[in-house]
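HOLO CASE FILE
Compound: FE-S-O hybrid cluster
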Amino acid sequence: MFCYQCQEAAKGTGCTLKGVCGKSDDLSNMMDLLLFVTKGICVYSSALREQKGYENPMVNKFVFDSLFTTITNANFDKAAITRRVTRAIEVRNMLRDEAAKQGVNVDTSFEGCTWEGKPEEYEAKSTTVGVLRESNEDIRSLKELITYGVKGMAAYAEHAYNLGFEDTEVYAFMQKTMADITRDLSVDELVALTLETGKYGVQTMALLDKANTTNYGNPEITKVNLGVRNNPGILISGHDLKDMEELLAQTEGTGVDVYTHSEMLPANYYPAFKKYKHFVGNYGSSWWHQREDFESFNGPILFTTNCIVPPLANASYKDRIYTTGAAGLEGATHIPDRENGKPKDFSAIIEHAKRCKPPVEIEKGEIVGGFAHEQVFALADKVVDAVKSGAIRKFIVMAGCDGRMKDRNYYTEFAQKLPNDTVILTAGCAKYRYNKLPLGDIGGIPRVLDAGQCNDSYSLAVIALKLKEIFQLNDINELPIAYNIAWYEQKAVIVLLALLYLGVKNIHLGPTLPAFLSPNVAKVLVENFGIGGITNVDEDIKLMVG
Ligand code: FS2
Ligand code: SF4
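Model generated. Tokens follow.
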């Protein structure tokens, strides 16, 4: 195996024996094989679309599902990935036949267009189709940067799809891009494609924002309860709000409470979910604390997406894990997809919860969130006055991901040491590094404004563009906003590319720069976009706040 797609890549270069995330080498290889055949699908589907306007909803869904399944920490079920490879070959061959029928010209020189292995040949083939197949370090770096951006885009497209929102331009871009990178492209072409990926990243996040807010209303200022009640509960994690809705509806009146974990916390901010009296609040912290949080929770846990940490052999909660959608874990119960427009069936996890003890209380109190674009616009006068009077000197965007590395204490210390006239804008699970600190407010404006999940970084961009308009500036970079972003997995990559596309410069990315950036590609990002790493808290505050 060779994988360097996330921030925890072993030794800062790549995982080769086993993933730091827990992915085994054979699972990693099988995911490479899935991507290999999926790229073959994309070669055919893009040729059919370009030449005949062919659009196939099943293919669109299969491609974004497959990409999503391979992101960090989403799926640890090798049998499920292997079945998906078989299905990928079938889908590709269906497209091959369709292309022949319609007289479409397809360049099938990429082997993923033609390889026809039997399941017993998958293992051997899977070791030959990974990232290192591309020998030029810079080309590989750019192609993988683009791939990871597209994977993040696929995740967001899937959540939007689940809520009934689709954008065929996004599907066309994803498929064309996955097809294009099978060919020889120059560094310049790949740099251009990287920026275009950011453009479609913005479009996808806008789509998901529309899907979320149309279905559930605009997030509003909310005090989220951190304590527990005396009923058995279900803990729901991940990012999928459709799963959240259906779980809440199906648990109502059953005596089972619902709590959010990690990236599902922002579900508490949506008006549509507040009506459920058995929706208690948030339990625990960010994804990597799950081994402790799940022990004490006592009830079953539903993973709707990443980030899964495979449980230890002696974990008490092993048989309490359920997955759904792109998430998967060997030994866990997988709740199947919706069929024929019917909701998913959560009865098994609900019955399981009824047999469990209530959660142990691990903290009390509340945290405040819900500062997505509409809520911030509602406070715009207050915010603008505070900036004009100097009460707010600077906004620091500290969005992104949390992770296990010790060095991430930097973000807690950074938040603590920021001067009192600064406000943190956040989204994603990075916030758990400081969202329970008593950082106070500025004239009633909390010093940590949480917009929501990582995809709600889109909200932060919308807010920045609105402020640019209000202050009549020519350039988004003239705003008093600095960017100190923490990344972990591929959704953070699409957020980063989206910000670059919007023209944001001088983003600090930490705790380490991606292993998949070759020195030359990193140089391009530094020279053109001013991207930099982090150093130490005091110097970075001086640099970012002045
Ligand atoms: Fe956090 Fe994990 Fe949100 Fe990432 S819960 S690192 O998936 O997408 O952020
Ligand atoms: Fe390693 Fe990250 Fe890849 Fe997992 S996803 S194998 S931790 S680089």
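CASE NOTES: The longest strand covers residues 481-486. The chain has 18 helices and 17 strands.
CLOSED: yes
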